[in-house]
């Protein structure tokens, strides 16, 4: 700082001390001229802010005071202020930044008015700090600054300039986009369009561009332009050399210069401005440099007028032009290659087309050469060796030519898109192993090792088998051809989503320069050692095409002298295949490809072996080719079908000599049958045959699952491709035209057999497996037709595979007519089979020889993986023995059950017959017992059947059986079966009537004999039991009570313990000598047999005692003493009474027994509860009371035991009341009916659970008179009736009417009765509470019509009707019944 | 045994001829009754015969038949016991009946 400056410095300028040069310049500002005044007068806030500003190394500027006076620091001066320093210091900010005040003024105003800071990032500002408006970018913040008193007085700006960064990034983006062309190669035009798009995106650095390309004359043509419309004078379409005033300096550019052009002058009027307010003023033109040659053209790049053309800008344009030049170079080079490739392909196609066309023409003469040559080779086998050698040469070359022709045809098919690939899932490992093995012997004969390293693949590969065979065989053949030492190695493995197959050899290898042409058609590598000079150079090309059809790749890796490795990659899955082409695996449908030509060809490369001669000698008559003996020996069972006997013999001899087992048939039908039974490994069939021709045979074979897989080789005299295609389409595996060579036939036989064995290995394994099953196995189609069976099936049913398919109704079904039940069973099972997804059943079936079998089958529905159709797979066992065992056991069990449940012989026999009927579903079963009665006793399933209404035929059958030996079944066809057995009452003949539809088999007879034996034993046992039971019942009845009751009594007895008929309760009536009746009802403790025995003794004792002394009390006392001696008798309760039926007087005594009940006719009821004392035997010494009651006429008496009235959870009185009500309500009911009613009414829900004895008596008892039909008997009858009516309590007038009515009825009977032989008349009279009923019955025969003299008889009937309420007269042959009723009016 | 029947012919206190029956008349003795009745009717000449049935305990249709035969020549002396019978049979409509 100079002293003069020091002097000029204002006092207080120490505020700028920290500011360095800027501070010094600030100090020199004439602050007094500014609104801030001299620094010494500045407020503290300003001073502080200024010192912060000056000490910061970050770019800052500040505006303070009313004019926003400008301050800044050194960093700001350097980065941003530029040429405005130091002029700007102390000036108003709006003056300092006038050019951008429109941008920043409003921001500062906002800060000062709101006190909130602003933030801007990368803001474009056109600063004029270098003498022109400059594109610049700034990131800055304006912060408010406050005065000492806190008021807003200015703002502070912290700023960083981003110009270099922003522009650099923009240019980099353009260069990056130029380099980001996604396509590898494109045409020049495409490349320029892409480039233009990228350049047009940056109109700041490149306001417009134009790309010119030179033509051969050095003239330039506009190829692309950006940012400027086409046709603008600045970018003319062409620039000619020699133009005096070109828009662009063409000639300089052609020399590779890069001139800077000022955009002034006419052509540049109105040029576009790009992204800027004003158009560019200069353009840099860059040549599009071509390596080692004149430039392709040049790039015009208009320049951004707001930036200087510095190194960075120039570099950017150079790089851009370089990109364009590179693009043009690459496009032009690609175009050139493309053209070259197309030329080559065209050549290839022409060559293929040519060969294909002539190949067809070759085939015919080739066949005509090969046939005769073969013939000659056979015929001249012993000829001059020189002749043979020459023939061999012709033969070999013929074969070679044939193979070449076939390959060429393959190509032409591929070219024409006619190669129909049949993709199916194939186990590539297995398929490749099998193919490789075909070559093994040839390779080992060549002295090479052969390694096959095959890994199982995770999934099948979709392949066309035929094509794949060609691929592998070609590669192997190729390897063998060029390998002399070491070996060949084949491997299969999985890698990612590919199956990888390599064929590697240690052969001569391929030179590096030959590698690119390895797969080229017709390209042969010359001057290389090989086993043969043969070769068309087409095999590998075909391999590549075929692999390509599978969307696979093949690459070769080779080194001269080391060997070659071919690697084929095939994708897994089906996604890469054309839609709908993958087919399910089907070993039969793939067209065959014979490995033989390859192997034969390979073998021809190898030296002949000494052993060959021996082989030839072994089959002197066979004109077999030498190659046949060299091949691995394959023998098979071959079926030959030809209608020409000579041809058959020839083929048989030829095939036999090669070791095959040959069967011959004369037509297709015979062949089909032989194929089904014999299951040959190969069928050779002529096409033209009678009955069934070869094509039909193939179709039939393919349609049968058993023969679908058998390979068929068709022979035909019909030459031509169409015939072959027809045969192959029908499903034949191979096709051979006549005449054919023996060698070719044998080779094809072997090839087909081998391939078939490879393919059907699993099928044969399955067949062997199924045939080894002990259970019968069958497969049904959807309709239930049996289409496949195994050996066990035939063993069990007798039906063999020769007649397959067996359509329903299958021949083993039982006959629908003669055995309809069994037939129905099978039909039901069949419905199950075809209608359900799985199940099992047991059915009767008929063996082929007619005998009955039982089969237990189980089945499952499955989807046929080939056809997708539903089939049913089932197995069954012969369960005949088990079936009959079960039938026997269950029949025996059922019979046993029947017999054990039966109470007597009749029951047992009926049950047994029903059981037999059910067992055999018989129409009827009849048993006749030839006992002592006149007619045999018949028991039948039809209960109405008797001997007399049996059919004569059946009678004869039964009579016939009687004389047969016991237990020997007799079967009568279509009628039934019978047997004789022992019935306890005599011989029993048993006949089972069967419908004609139910045969009675041997097993049935055995079963019948067995059952009959059991029935005889069972019946005998039951007879014994029956006897015992009847004895027991008689004994029980004896102890129960009197068989005959006095009239007027009704009783009921219900023992609690079944099947006993007696229990602990009893009732008794004893007719005493004086006409009175002893009545006893008692109840011993407990029930069952034990109580019954006690009861029997007490009853007898009581009876005896009453007869001795007719006093109830005395009787009971005596019983007390008796009971003391009788265990179990104590505590029995007894009601004992003596009734005078004349008077209704009853004397009674009760030993702890429930009271008797009396219901009078007027509805009054009485309980006879007097004369009561302790139960029997409790206090033998105590006396017993007696009571009396007189029953009026028609009163009803009820005696009972507690079983009738005692109910759980009910007082005894409730039961007594219910019994009382029942008697009361039933006093108008006849007592038999009343007894039934009472028992029913009082019965608990589940029946009586205790012994019940019930005794009813109505006073008086009914009157029963029987007397001869004589008039003299009328008076005593009247007397008796009058007395009874009196006891009944009928009034005299009514009694008189009844007497007259009864008298008339009796007179009538006497009158009409037979006088000479008088009949008898019975009169019965009974009373209820309000009703009298009289019945007069005579048994005399009625005399004919009455004489008029006896007309008073008419009065008799009139009187009866007049005096009685209801009169019916029933006259029958046995007599007349007169029934009369009268109501008793109380 | 024949039913007990006693028949006594005589005159009523008023001089009218009478036949008095005591006992039972049924099929076994109706013929006897008919014969005696016919004889009594015959002997009573033109005067009505009074048949006294008050002591008859039983009379059936056979006895009634005999009475019907002479209905025009007889009068009856009856008891309540026989009344329903005579009424029902229709004899009461033909014969004068004197109740006792």
From TrEMBL, chain A:
Modified residues (4-aspartylphosphate): 686
Enzyme class: transferase
Region (Disordered): 610-633
Entry's localization field: Cell membrane
NCBIfam families: sensory_box
Enzyme Commission number, as recorded: 2.7.13.3
Record-level Gene Ontology MF annotations: ATP binding; phosphorelay sensor kinase activity
Record-level GO cellular component terms: plasma membrane
Entries under Gene3D superfamilies matching the protein: 1.10.287.130, 3.30.450.40, 3.40.50.2300, Histidine kinase-like ATPase, C-terminal domain (3.30.565.10), PAS domain (3.30.450.20), PPM-type phosphatase domain (3.60.40.10)
Recorded catalytic activity of this chain's protein: ATP + protein L-histidine = ADP + protein N-phospho-L-histidine
Positions of the PAS domain: 769-804
Name the record gives this protein: histidine kinase
Coiled coil (UniProt feature): none
Ranges where the Response regulatory domain occurs: 637-753
The entry's keywords: ATP-binding, Cell membrane, Kinase, Membrane, Nucleotide-binding, Phosphoprotein, Transferase, Two-component regulatory system
Organism: Actinoplanes regularis
Domain named Histidine kinase: residues: 357-574
Short name of one Pfam family: Response_reg
TrEMBL record, chain B:
Residues annotated as domain STAS: 23-100
Domain of life from the UniProt record: Bacteria
InterPro entries hit by this protein: STAS_dom, STAS_dom_sf
Signal peptide: none
Pfam families in UniProt: STAS
Organism lineage: Bacteria, Bacillati, Actinomycetota, Actinomycetes, Micromonosporales
Protein name as catalogued: Anti-anti-sigma factor
Organism name: Actinoplanes regularis
